[in-house]
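DM from R.C. (forwarded with permission)

"hey, sorry to bug you on a friday — could you get me a structure for this? deadline for the figure draft is monday and I only need the backbone to look sensible"
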Amino acid sequence: MSITPTQIDAFARFLDDLQRRITDALAAEDGQPFRRDVWQRDGADGSLGGHGATMVLKDGAVIEQGGVNV
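My reply, with the result:
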């Protein structure tokens, strides 16, 4: 069974939504927003090798420093 591009896109959206829900809940408790750093890297053949968003919270009221990477 092979994985289709549609399935890959759906899973990527799921992970992005999961990361957003986690950071939204933590930010609501802490009162400090997360900083979002979007990144991507090239594959060996020049195609897209990976991408994502690093979410970091610093100097919060409850969380001194934390990150959510999915």
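R.C.: lifesaver. Residues 34 and 57 are 5 Å apart (CA to CA).
me: no worries. The chain has one domain: 5-68.
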